[in-house]
Amino acid sequence: MEVDRRAMECAVDAQSLISISLMKIHNSRTQRGGIKLHKNLLVSYVLRNARQVYIKEKYAEIYRMQQYEEVMAVCNEIQELDPLDLGAEDGDEEEQGRAACCGEESRPAGSREPEQPYYRSCCMEAPPGSPCDQFAPNGGGGGGSHCNKTTVLDLDTHVVTTVENGFLHQDCCCAAPQCAPGAAARKRKVDSGGCAPDAEEPSDFTAARKRLKREDCSNPDCNPDYTDTSNISNLISIFGSGFSGLLSRQADLEQVCSKQALASLGAWTRAIVAF
Amino acid sequence: GSTLAALRKSGSRFQRSRRYPDIISTVEFNYSGDLLATGDKGGRVVIFQHEQESKNRPHLRGEYNVYSTFQSHEPEFDYLKSLEIEEKINKIRWLPQQNAAHFLLSTNDKTIKLWKISERDKRAEGYNLKDEDGRIRDPYRITSLRVPVLMPMDLMVEASPRRIFANAHTYHINSISVNSDHETYLSADDLRINLWHLEITDRSFNIVDIKPANMEELTEVITAAECHPHQCNVFVYSSSKGTIRLCDMRAAALCDRHSKFFEEPEDPSSRSFFSEIISSISDVKFSHSGRYMMTRDYLSVKVWDLNMENRPVETYQVHEYLRSKLCSLYENDCIFDKFECCWNGSDSAIMTGSYNNFFRMFDRNTRRDITLEASRESSKPRATLKPRKVSTGGKRKKDEISVDSLDFNKKILHTAWHPKDNVIAVAATNNLYIFQDKIN
User: Fold this and answer.
1) String of DSSP letters for A1-26
2) SS3 state of residue A245
3) Burial class (CB in 10 A: 0-12, 13-18, 19+), B119
4) DSSP H helix total and E strand total for chain A
5) pLDDT tens digits, one per residue of A60-118
6) Does B20 reach chain A within 8 Å, measured CB to CB?
7) How many contacts does A have with B, using Cβ atoms within 8 A?
8) Cβ atoms within 10 Å of B132's Cβ, excluding its own
9) Which residue ranges are recorded for the region named Disordered (chain B) (predicted)?
10) Out of A73, B147, B242, B380, which residue is the most buried by the measure of CB atoms under 10 Å away?
11) Closest Cα of chain B to A176: distance in Å?
């Protein structure tokens, strides 16, 4: 069931709930007696609910941000950049698709538009040869991977994330100067005209959403991935990646509880299926 | 509600376990109410016995004294999974008494044990082959034979493990329940329920299995299970989704398909981040009559008529004032506390615990409820317990306690009601309180 923010009794920050929940799942790994399946399952429900609310709020925020003229400016900028790596999809097709999307967006579509430039600018893939390539499983430079793979670079948190078949692969945290400086520069230029500089980066959530947007630009509200959010597997998929990533990040636990945590999630919820 | 008088509190004189404090983890009266068993986090079982009335010492009437103490479970290590198995006793269930000895089942997360508790008040004396100290006599010095005689000795209560039912549960055992046939019992973990015969330890039948083919598709777990008190083919199990399934073992060997499905539709206006957590059922208990069952979720107790599946017949709010505090209770893990509930002997009243060492009793006939506190201060021997009240509004009356003053570390998860009399046992962390109705 959808979680309605208005129905919340307590004024709870969805983001902090996510952080708290992930910490609980992480701590359960070391608790005496082994992982408690029941408790972790309940925590994953809180995670799912918080994520729903967070995404809703995030999109509401994005809707408010952008102006129509900035949309056009961004679209023009983007058409000069490297195409996204969509595997089987032809680069030209992608450009045409985006052009079409931009074309659609050029129609006065009020509240839907502001979303696009942010999406575009943040969905740009790191150019080949960037340090981020090593983190993208199939290379950042457009290897011929299968059609459901997308690599996105988020410049606010400097995380490269790969979304594959709805599964989110972690991710790197590269400092801005090291990672795709060229692209960063271009994105900065785009961002200054587009996104609000202090916009919160939803990272993996919107990464998955953005993949869907590509499939159906005409309906940004379409969200096939979330129609069965009652299914925990969906949640686990979105958060999933190798648990070794978690173990190597012991030193980064301080970061976990911060807002940057959303950008550097490990497979915390893998604990649920660790049996 | 009836007035309850404090009779005796105990627990402070028990030696603390060398590993962990002896937090009580289960409380259970036997069928006659003469014995009260408690299990703790250190794997120990302590059994109290009701002292018989004595004309010479009338003030001892109704007192429960320690009868037997033994170590039921020890911590273990599963080397294959690199997991430690806690020795904490999750549940104790008595068997109906069939001879002079008493039998109970105790379980931790993985292993169930059948214990025999027997009394020895006589000792054989006058052996031929050994002397009184136990030393073997020189056979050449034995010149005559005699028959050993039984001499009285100080009462000794011995506990010995008679059966060990192991290696049948991959997940953590949360329930055991003795069947009305007195030959079988069931044990439930997060995903499976097994049926055992009390005499057979190397085999059990799996009767419920809700493990999905792909664990990523897991959406609910089993939280409690109980056999019907009279119909030996019927049992129920509750889930983390707030549903109860009643199963009939005659219908099929594998009871994955339920006979009845009890669920109350969720109120959409009360939806929150924590809706799933607070709807998870922590305990299910049949009434003594077998006509009703009671479930406990985080904020309420519900009584269900077995003939009506779509909603409970009665709902009692235990501590509704916590609904606005769910976020804090989630942060400090209190929201995961598993409260139990129990019926009185006549099924006219139900009892369950809360925080701040409060426990609640509901009279089903008069619909009155009472909140009482189990604490040293409030339970001087023979003192009447004073009803407590939590103030929910802005104005706090005298003697009321505000929600923010509640001590959430003092939780009463385990309570038990004597099967016949108005005697209750309340476990408050590592103290056991026993209360009973005023005699006069």
Assistant:
1) -PPPGGG-SS---HHHHHHHHHHHHH
2) helix
3) middle
4) 10, 3
5) 888 877 666 677 777 788 777 756 544 444 444 444 434 444 444 344 434 443 333 33
6) no
7) 107
8) 8
9) 374-397
10) B242
11) 34
